[in-house]
Amino acid sequence: MKKIPIYIISGFLGSGKTTLLTHILEYYKTKNIKPAIVLNELGKVNVELHLFGDEHVFELLNGCICCTIQDVLRTTLTTLLDSHVKKPIDVLFIEGTGCC
After folding, report:
1. What whole-number distance in Å separates Cα of residue 96 and Cα of residue 17?
2. 90: number of CA atoms within 13 Å, CB side?
């Protein structure tokens, strides 16, 4: 299995994390690079999910991946790597909450 680059995007609320990620994804589409995305949200619903269309997206809700739901992140990454065999990805982005 090839190594997959992982990029962690963090910043304060409203700092442009999602905007940056959507621009990167637009560029990657032109290069036929297949991303996977892990979106972390403190609430029960991710209101920005629609921005990522049909990308390989995993939602981590109801907590912060750096302090309260680390086990969920670990399980999600394991699931992602297992599914990588069926649906290959080239790069992984992890977008933390605004308080990470």
Report:
1. 9
2. 9
Nearest one of 17, 16, 35 to 93, comparing CA atoms: 35
pLDDT value at position 45? 57
Distance CA 36, CA 55 (A): 7
Q: How much helix, strand and coil, in percent to the nearest 5, is found in the chain?
A: 30, 20, 50
| 8 Å CB contact between 35 and 25 | yes
Token reading at 43: 């609430």
Q: What is the pLDDT of residues 27-85, one digit of tens each?
A: 999 999 999 988 887 656 555 656 667 667 787 766 777 777 778 888 888 888 777 66
Asked if residues 93 and 20 have their Cβ atoms less than 8 Å apart, the reply is: no
Token match 């892990």: residue?
Answer: 38
